[in-house]
Amino acid sequence: MSTEVNISPAEKASIECLKKVYHAIDKQKNFLVEAGAGAGKTYTLIKALKYLIEKNADAYLKANKRIACITYTKVARNEIRSRTDNHPAIFADTIHAFAWGAIQDFQKALRERISGLSDNWQSRVDEIGGITNQQVVYNLGYPKITNDEISLHHDDVIKLLTSFLNDEKFKRILTSRYPIILIDEYQDTNRHLADALVANFIETESGPMIGFFGDHWQRIYGTASVGLIQASEAKLELIGKKANFRSDKNIVAALNNMRPQLKQFEYDPESEGDIIVFHANNWIGVRRTDGHSAGDLPAKTAHNYLEWTKNRLNDQGWNISSDNTKILMLTNNVLASEQGYQKVFATFSDTDDFLKKNDHYISFLADVVEVGSVAFVQKKYGEMIEAFKLSTPRIRTHSDKKVWHDDLTALLTLQQAGTIGEVIDLLKTTRKPRLSRKVGEREQRFAEISAIVEEDRIDEDKKFFAKIQAIRSIPYSEIKNVVKYIDNKTLYSTKHGVKGAEFENVIVVLGRGWNHYNWNQLLEWIHGGVPALKQDTFERNRNLFYVACSRPKKRLSLLFTQELSAKAILGLQSLFGNVIIQADLQI
């Protein structure tokens, strides 16, 4: 009884959620855990996996079955593997790895589906003279077809799995291999794949038991993902996790005003939490009129307002630094150029390629070359050798030491003043470190294409060559800036760095610059009146606003550089109360 009295409101809500998850598992019922910001979703997922291991592991391993846990990032995959002790009954991997593992043995059926993937694939098939008996592979992630091989793009693998889910034989085989499938961050699931899972497994009440973990209010990237999974109520149990272990009481209260359907309980009822909102409506100069920036302050003025805000907050004891504060720029007034990686940003169409290190060049340079070279500078040679993934090198003579010193000094010089291509070319010679297998494969293909006269290159090779050439031309110094950004060693972040993070203090700057985001419009619609054709727009804005406002532990401040209407101000007051102040900046 005393235990019940002593647990926090958040802990009590977490226990209730977990009981419902265990009950659904015991009843072999499909379920969806809706875990709001700070709720501890991953904790619940890990507890569910451990419960399943306890119940089913021995029987599953004897029958060559496994529990699948699908993630959307390698970081999440690695965390799940680590926290389940790499248990052999758990298959934890990314959606692409899971999809390819499920379909790769169906070579004939794969070949039959290639032409229907897209018009581009049909053109590739026509150019090669048709599909014969090529081996379908998925390794480089670049689409290509030759007389011997068909290489799939990342998106193709998801499309193909979606197609296979309509095949009865495939469904039986998948179910026999994975009787239980848990999906982390379900809201990021491809819309068509999610629909196929619901239609073929959940609605038919056949196939594997499926458990979804995530939060559809935290879908903030793109429109291809599903957001909320929808199925018949009796066939998918919705379990809300009404806990918030991150934020202090006043911040949780504001989040509950935004989202009364999933009211959260704070961890510490005695906490407070500071919220202060600034707007720049009193600025008397000419606001921007260009495109998606209409109604915003000029960039220099917006910068001055932010500096004023930081000074005002410091006067109130915030003690702003990169160690305890993150400034989230929900505006395009601060671009990648100000972060110092503009060419990286321009080269990759998908920011996940560099922000989540999905691109093999970025992951190799950031996780191997950067880590090892920093260790060398700090004279932590053991860490350098570990980062470079070297067996213990033979350094016995003065000559050996000089070779190492000269090679690493040359690397450091190019890291400061050279390009990625120049660094890669140096490493081909010094092998300190060796290129990763994936980068080596791309460099070899790049060299082979280089030897072909340009007009004789096929379209796929031209695209590949242009992509690698663009990567190689990036100043290496931008990799250092990307690493700083990823490692949260900068004070600033953009919308791409918002999700999943938490900080002591958060300042959110809300302006214009993206065609998909209009904060004045969001606040006018926050309590209803969203036009029928604008629901997707509203949800995109609402979700990013919610995610940004739910990052802080102790203190939250908002600065609106976009001009706000009287109705929008009322919307703000309904969320945050009497904490709205006109920024008093004399310019």
UniProtKB/TrEMBL annotation:
Keywords: ATP-binding, Helicase, Hydrolase, Nucleotide-binding. The keyword Hydrolase applies. The keyword Nucleotide-binding applies. InterPro entries: DNA_helicase_UvrD/REP, P-loop_NTPase. GO terms for molecular function: 3'-5' DNA helicase activity; ATP binding; DNA binding; hydrolase activity. GO terms for biological process: recombinational repair. This is DNA 3'-5' helicase II. It comes from Flavobacterium gillisiae.
